[in-house]
């Protein structure tokens, strides 16, 4: 494998780690659940379904996807099961997006320099 391919593979590997996070947040219901947990703190499935037409089973399924992505976790409080937001994965994904943004800015600056320094 060439050095360029090795470097590209090394950069792509961390991105693969966040694919489940972005996939989980790509669903409107899951994004709404994350927002509710961010604002309301730990909540039960009953609280999360209150005021919606979404079944408890559907909410449970969506919470499972969010948990698999590391965005939420469940807590046992007595006989109740509460769900809470876990910010660590989202923070890491945000930092990765910022790094990608910086790489784009650098690439665009190089392109601008190349275009401006080589007039037609």
Task: Describe what this molecule looks like in 3D.
This protein is mainly alpha-helical. 71% of the residues lie in helices and 12% in strands. The chain has helices at 3-25, 28-40, 45-49, 56-68, 87-117, and strands at 43-44, 72-77, 80-85. The chain has a 3-stranded antiparallel sheet with strand order 1-3-2. Helix 1 crosses helix 5 (87-117) and helix 2 crosses helix 4 (56-68). The model has no long low-confidence stretch (mean pLDDT 86).
Task: Write a compact overview of the structure shown.
The chain is mainly α. Helices cover 71% and strands 12% of the residues. It has helices at residues 3-25, 28-40, 45-49, 56-68, 87-117, and strands at 43-44, 72-77, 80-85.
Structural class: mainly alpha
**Structural Rg:** 20 Å
For the record, give the distance between the C-alpha atoms at the N and C termini, rounded to a whole number: 37 Å
Q: Sheet with the most strands?
A: 3 strands, antiparallel
Total strand segments: 3
Which residues form runs of ≥5 with pLDDT under 50?
Answer: none
The geometry reads as elongated
Helicity range: over 70%
Strand content: 5-15%
Keywords:
120 residues; mainly alpha; 3-stranded antiparallel beta sheet; 5 helices; elongated
Task: Detail the topology: elements first, then pairings.
Blueprint: H1 3-25, H2 28-40, E1 43-44, H3 45-49, H4 56-68, E2 72-77, E3 80-85, H5 87-117
Antiparallel strand pairs: 1-3, 2-3
């Amino acid at each position: 494998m060439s050095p360029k391919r090795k470097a590209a593979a090394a950069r792509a590997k961390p991105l693969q780690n966040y694919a489940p996070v972005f996939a989980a947040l790509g669903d409107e219901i899951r994004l709404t659940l994350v927002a509710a947990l961010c604002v309301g703190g730990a909540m039960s499935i009953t609280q999360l379904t209150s005021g919606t037409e979404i079944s408890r089973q559907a909410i449970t399924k969506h919470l499972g996807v969010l948990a698999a992505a590391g965005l939420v976790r469940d807590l046992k409080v007595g006989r109740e099961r509460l769900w809470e937001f876990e910010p660590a994965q989202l923070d890491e994904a945000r930092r990765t997006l910022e790094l990608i943004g910086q790489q784009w800015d650098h690439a665009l600056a190089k392109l601008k320099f190349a275009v401006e320094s080589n007039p037609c």
